[in-house]
Amino acid sequence: MNHEALISLAVYFVLMLGIGLYAYRKSTSDVSEYMLGGRQLHPAVGALSAGASDMSGWMLMGLPGAVFVSGFSAAWIAVGLVIGAYLNYLFVAPRLRVYTEMADDAITIPDFFEKRFHDKSRALRVLSSVVIVIFFTLYTSAGVVAGGKLFEASFGLDYQLGLFLTAGVVVAYTLFGGFLAVSLTDFVQGCIMFVALVLVPVVAISAVGGFDATQAEVLASPAASVPDAPSRANFFNWFQGLSVIGIISAASWGLGYFGQPHIIVRFMAIRTLKDIATARYIGMSWMIVTVIGAVAVGVTGVAYVNEHNLNSELTDPETIFILFSQVLFHPLISGFLLAAILAAIMSTISSQLLVSSSSLTEDFYKTFLRKEASQTELVAVGRISVLVVSLVAIGLAFDRSSNILSLVGNAWAGFGAAFGPIILLSLYWRGLTRDGALAGMVVGAVTVLFWLYAPIEIDGKSLSDILYEIVPGFVLSGVAAIVVSIVGRDVLPHVLHRFGEMEKAMEEGSK
């Protein structure tokens, strides 16, 4: 790696740490500011922060790698995500912004659940907190894996050293700067990702000789050098090797949006209800461009690798973006593009660390250990929680063979199935009870885990290979929540009254 590229990366690291210092001085005086930025997030910052924290390393590594191996049939995931993100902005964002503030200023999802259902047993808070900590630790480890692969492929550094370098900078600005630091760094990182995912495919297509030449090279190239990789003859066929169940399985990634705490917490923090629509326009425009760019990187990667006989050098398809940054650009630009990958990785890790920290602080420490803890003490506990979760995630990421897209997919399904139906029902159905919400969470999480780890095979394939686990998890979670709520019809009057107050506030806020 050239010194110029190292300079670009160093500038990026200094910028991130500088933002963390600014946020530390501006908004970490109490736990609400540290965890939610005082609900004063600008819509543009909220939109790009949600997008950057959503896409993570899989956007620049996982998705291009999947398209490189399987062709357009792998892009159904992107289609499902775009649709799911739009529906999330449309149906969840406005109501969640109003309802969480009305629910005694709930600043975490478990906090909202407890106050929404007036749950004095604390069962909802505890269960949802456990789900958050478990699945986010797994999710965070996926980001750390991506960082390790980046430093190994780009700098020739030891994979494990890359894990610590990636996590170290993220922990520094997240631990000290809190939510504002995470959101502002996400905004900058989102801008970097946008530029990179427009620049790289455009330059790569030009290097191959244009669209027609790119298509011809792709069709003439051999299958990817990974087990069971399909031929390139049907590379541009959206339905290659896919059944109806396969398409549903890939597109169903969009269902996960309704239950991702690190994304929907941005909606809670945007300063006004009217700003939600602005955030939706900005966020969806950003997402559509970047997703198309990521798919294009995978496509042009096949053409370029075949044209220059680089198949033997590209041992990991998930590093195709890294290869492009090294062979097509000046070292200074190469450093910027590698910073884009780090931006994608770090934005998600920081968001996940903060949500895990807020859950451990608000939903465990304050609720069960120190009810009278001062704001200063809670902020300190939040910072310690960031450090602890990051260390556990690093430990899980030590397995060099971990697949980024697979790790992300497992955690994404866990959140989507456990929280998605409950979030939607809690915002739109008065009849949902506490017991219904509990049943839905348990059934959703257990179904995902069963689908992943049950020793059951059909025609030699595991359940998760046949159908993405979020589909049965989401459906059964919703069914369980509805059935249990209807069977136990004793919906408390004060819950209905509280919900009515929230709906009234929603109507007034939209005027």
UniProtKB/TrEMBL annotation:
Domain of life: Bacteria
GO biological process: proline transport
InterPro entries referenced in this protein's UniProt entry, alphabetically: Na/Glc_symporter_sf, Na/Pro_symporter, Na/solute_symporter, Na/solute_symporter_CS, Sodium:Solute_Symporter
GO CC list: plasma membrane
MF annotations from Gene Ontology: L-proline transmembrane transporter activity; proline:sodium symporter activity; sodium ion binding
One Pfam entry name: SSF
Transmembrane segments: 6-24, 67-92, 123-142, 162-184, 191-211, 238-258, 279-305, 320-345, 378-398, 404-429, 436-454, 466-488
Keywords: Amino-acid transport, Cell inner membrane, Cell membrane, Ion transport, Membrane, Sodium, Sodium transport, Symport, Transmembrane, Transmembrane helix, Transport
Keyword Transport (UniProt): yes
Catalytic activity, as annotated: L-proline(in) + Na(+)(in) = L-proline(out) + Na(+)(out)
Gene3D superfamilies named in the record: Sodium/glucose cotransporter (1.20.1730.10)
Main location per the UniProt record: membrane
Official protein name in the record: Sodium/proline symporter
Native species: Hyphomonas adhaerens MHS-3
